[in-house]
Write a structure and sequence with these properties.
Elements lengths: L4 E3 L5 E3 L8 H28 L12 H20 L6 H16 L1
Antiparallel strand pairs: 1-2
Helix pairs in contact: 1-2, 1-3
């Protein structure tokens, strides 16, 4: 069996559940951080896609103002993608963060 384990009163070995000793507030904070991390990663993936778009022929005609707002648009789009489940990166990141938090508390 791989990963952390724990023994039941009967001696049966079970996998250790990440976050078992953390408070609900700690778990919520870790989950939010993991989702923010995933949103940042998604933003890094999709930003080059927006660099290939010729915005001079778009509705607003391009320009400096549009270029200034583009990173914020990419960031918000990435946050929405992460909020809807994203690439599935937040869950394993959250599990590892919980394990590290529990190890630091020992």
């Amino acid at each position: 069996m791989t990963g952390p384990t724990r023994a039941t009163p009967g001696g049966q070995i079970l996998p250790q559940v990440a976050g078992a000793t953390l408070t609900p507030a700690q778990k919520q904070k870790i989950a939010a951080s993991a989702q923010q991390f995933e949103a940042m990663a998604i933003g890094q993936f999709i930003a080059p896609m927006f660099d290939t778009v010729d915005s001079s022929k778009g509705l607003f005609g391009g320009g400096e103002a549009e270029a200034a707002w583009k990173p914020m648009m990419v960031s918000e789009l990435a946050k929405q993608i992460a909020k809807q489940g994203g690439f599935g990166l937040a869950q394993p990141v959250m599990q590892q963060m919980m394990r590290l938090q529990e190890a630091a508390a020992k």
